[in-house]
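Practice problem 4.
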């Protein structure tokens, strides 16, 4: 990034920008919103509360040109192997190309539709002949967070015959046990969702679930009626004993954190019906078209990415808060933590050189109104300068007087917080002083439905991609997660053989304390 011609100019501009107060930009230009907002049908991105001027924006746009962003967008969409460290394409946009679907994608849509139909029409029956009423998705990371986030958000508009959905991801087993306590084996179906079908977290939970069914079912064929597999690994699904019609596929060119657009989204289709699922893909596809075709200066994904680069590299902000003003987006921050930090949490360039600039924000978040009563204190008066994304919906989710009241209260709070963070306020004493100057975006969507949710997720995906191009890093691999998995297997062996030799003293000490505690009880 540093060798791009506009870099040094941006550094200079950044130094000046740090000296001015964000609120002064509003004093200088009373129509700042018009100049610093961008839109497409269904969404307005207001970035007027960013500490950026027209000149700075122009220079950021130049930086994007110099980094060959257009070329990279073409590579992404044309299926080039942009994930070079795994020798793969990153083809998630092809999964939502409704006008021109790949034959293999279409084929899986049909298989998925057949399964959804069998469950909705109560044809899929368990070992005792009873119809399925509950579906438990067993998966972790990308095989959990996307479907969990989306189905939680859209719960209120599910299709009439949708089964109850449950999500289990944690390998400690307690989450699964809690869920199983509420369910009947006869009417429960498990989706074993794993791109690799080798993840110990998922496979260990799936085995426990299978044993639970086996305690009631007397035949293997009856037991396997209760399991569906979703994976890129057909041989492993077969080995696990999954029935051929219960195996849904996707492909290695779909990254784990981008897999909710593939058959991993089965729970979304079960909840929304195939039509709703397609609306979700359609929303993402509309964002893809916008990203590919709209000039950078009006392109919401490009602008969102560049603003982030400006904040991280030139204004030295490390934190990014995700603040949806809608409780339905309870899991959005968890989902974006993986999307953003697993993608851009990298320390070397594409060619393997160590970077000497920051590459990724530390992202966290919470439903806005609740976060106001928790960590907003730090944003208003702490020593950290952070950036925030406020997410708001224009339409209320109901039309009674109380709906309108709550909706207005919610809008007022969202706008009040972004304004307070921006302007601050001089206090009568230092404890009551609000420095202000905290930057934010507001993403205003028409409403929260499958289509607009698809649009929002694709927006964040593309913003992450834009940032990776500027930083010259590969956002599609995640080698960083491997080391811990390997060491966990080594330690498991040590635990099973009660042997602490060759371990560091911290690990030894903790294991010995655990064993002593276990012996005492
Ligand atoms: O879907 P799976 O192959 O089971 O992988 C589940 C998750 O685990 C890995 O460790 C990666 O960090 C994630 O990117 C992935 O989504």
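Answer key:
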């Amino acid at each position: 990034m540093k060798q791009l011609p506009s870099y040094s100019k941006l550094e200079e501009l950044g130094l000046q920008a740090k000296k001015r107060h964000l609120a002064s930009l509003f004093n200088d230009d009373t129509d700042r919103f018009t100049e610093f907002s961008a839109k497409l049908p269904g969404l307005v991105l207001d970035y007027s509360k960013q500490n950026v001027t027209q000149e700075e924006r122009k220079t950021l746009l130049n930086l994007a040109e110099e980094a060959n962003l257009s070329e990279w967008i073409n590579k992404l969409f044309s299926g080039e192997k942009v994930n070079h460290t795994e020798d793969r394409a990153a083809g998630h946009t092809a999964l939502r190309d409704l006008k021109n679907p790949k034959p293999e994608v279409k084929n899986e849509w049909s298989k998925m539709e057949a399964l959804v139909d069998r469950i909705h029409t109560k044809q899929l029956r368990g070992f005792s002949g009873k119809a399925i009423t509950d579906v438990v998705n067993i998966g972790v990371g990308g095989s959990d967070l996307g479907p969990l986030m989306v189905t939680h958000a859209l719960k209120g508009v599910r299709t009439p015959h949708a089964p109850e959905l449950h999500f289990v991801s944690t390998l400690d087993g307690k989450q699964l046990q809690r869920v199983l306590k509420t369910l009947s084996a006869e009417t429960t179906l498990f989706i074993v969702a794993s791109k690799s079908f080798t993840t110990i977290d998922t496979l260990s939970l799936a085995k426990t679930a299978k044993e639970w069914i086996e305690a009631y079912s007397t035949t293997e064929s009856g037991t396997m009626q209760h399991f569906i597999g979703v994976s890129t690994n057909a041989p492993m699904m077969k080995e696990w004993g999954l029935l051929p019609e219960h195996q849904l596929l996707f492909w290695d060119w779909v990254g784990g954190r981008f897999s909710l657009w593939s058959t991993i989204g089965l729970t979304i289709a079960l909840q929304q019906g195939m039509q709703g699922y397609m609306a979700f893909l359609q929303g993402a596809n509309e964002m893809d078209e916008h990203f590919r075709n709209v000039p950078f200066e009006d392109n919401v994904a490009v602008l969102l990415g560049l603003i982030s680069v400006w904040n991280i590299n030139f204004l030295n902000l490390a934190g990014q808060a995700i603040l949806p003003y809608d409780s339905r987006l309870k899991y959005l921050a968890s989902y974006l933590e993986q999307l953003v930090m697993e993608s851009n949490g990298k320390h070397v360039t594409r060619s393997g050189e160590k970077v000497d600039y920051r590459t990724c924000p530390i992202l966290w978040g919470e439903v806005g109104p609740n976060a106001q009563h928790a960590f907003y204190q730090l944003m208003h008066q702490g020593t950290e300068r952070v950036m925030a994304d406020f997410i708001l919906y224009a339409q209320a989710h109901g039309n009674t007087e109380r709906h309108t009241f709550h909706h207005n209260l919610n809008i007022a709070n969202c706008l009040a917080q972004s304004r307070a963070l921006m302007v601050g306020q001089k206090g009568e004493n230092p404890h009551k002083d609000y420095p202000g100057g905290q930057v934010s975006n507001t993403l205003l969507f028409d409403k929260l439905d499958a289509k607009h949710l698809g649009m929002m997720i694709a927006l964040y995906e593309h913003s992450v991609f834009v940032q990776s191009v500027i930083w010259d890093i590969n956002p599609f691999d995640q080698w960083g997660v491997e080391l811990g998995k390997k060491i966990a297997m080594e330690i498991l062996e040590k635990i099973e053989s009660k042997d602490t030799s060759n371990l560091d003293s911290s690990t030894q000490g903790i294991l010995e304390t655990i064993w002593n505690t276990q012996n005492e009880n």
